[in-house]
Design brief:
It contains 6 helices and 16 strands.
Length: about 300
């Protein structure tokens, strides 16, 4: 896998007790690196590709979509039963209730693996799998019945851990190879530094904008005299663009007399080497604290 980026595969499934306004009762969505690649709902009752590169899977394995559909139909049925079980367990009246599961795995840049499974009910965590201790964690008393049951099934937790750390990772690697033109591409960020006009206490706010980069991971910071300057730095979270790339920003208040000391420092897989972008029209000035007086030679 290229560069320093990590990769992940996640599935989100949810079921509501009272579907309304065209909302399907049950939905499963699969993501690779945050991109939806497969989708199933109780209206279509078929697992379907959501990206062009998934067509390759069906060519290589003609049974793939049928078997994924059967798995999702089974989950749909289980969720319907579980909604009723939990409604009774929580002693609730009929009405709108939602049951959710999210699970997945990640492959870090250093080769380490991560995995998680979390069950939710009515927007709260119901059960979480701890793969280090091979046990289920129940934050609510109503979940402890299920937790004790699952923990006592011989081999269940070992199989769950094996799925997260081995099978899930194998599938992730397979999907990455199918979608490599998209998922393993690199797009360098376009970096611009602009000044906000309002001035407060004689300080100017400067914003470093990063746009059009892929993958999502990016390391950006303001530096002062070449040192990372975290003081008063505000960051916008990394957000997606319509074309699948990402954008982000970070701002900092600067004394106008010291503009030349600051740079926006950016590291990303799409860049051959780190970028240091100066504020427009400024050159780095010597640091008087270090040099004493300017040399007049």
């Amino acid at each position: 896998l290229p560069g320093t980026s990590s990769h992940s595969m996640k599935y989100f499934s949810s079921s509501i007790s009272e579907p309304s306004q065209g909302l399907p009762q049950f939905v499963t969505v699969g993501y690779v690196d945050g991109q939806v690649f497969a989708y199933y709902d109780s209206n279509s009752r078929r697992m379907q590709p959501r990206v062009s590169w998934m067509e390759k899977v069906g060519k290589e394995d003609p049974q793939y979509w049928d078997s994924e559909t059967q798995i999702s139909r089974g989950t749909e049925e289980t969720f319907r039963e579980n909604l009723e079980i939990l409604r009774l367990r929580y002693n609730q009246s009929e009405g709108l209730h939602i049951i959710q599961i999210m699970y997945g795995c990640a492959l870090q840049a250093d080769g380490s693996k991560g995995g998680f499974i979390q069950h939710g009910y009515d927007g709260g965590t119901f059960l979480t799998f701890d793969k280090d201790t091979l046990t289920w964690v129940a934050p609510q008393p109503q979940a402890q019945i299920t937790q004790r049951k699952w923990d006592s099934i011989p081999g269940l937790n070992q199989r769950t851990k094996f799925y997260l750390e081995e099978i899930c990772i194998e599938w992730l690697q397979k999907y990455l190879s199918y979608g490599k033109e998209t998922l393993l591409r690199t797009e360098p960020p376009e970096v611009t530094v602009s000044k906000k006009t309002e001035v407060e206490d004689g300080m100017e706010t400067h914003v470093c904008r990063l746009d059009g980069f892929y993958p999502r991971e990016i390391n950006a910071s303001w530096t002062r005299n070449g040192e990372v300057w975290l003081q008063d730095t505000f960051r916008g979270s990394v957000a997606p663009n319509a074309d699948g790339t990402f954008h982000a920003w970070l701002s900092i208040p600067i004394d106008p007399l010291e503009r030349g000391r600051y740079r926006c420092h950016v590291e990303h897989d799409g860049l051959q080497e780190p970028l240091d972008v100066a504020i427009k029209g400024e050159k780095l000035i010597p640091d008087l604290d270090q040099t004493g007086l300017y040399s007049l030679q």
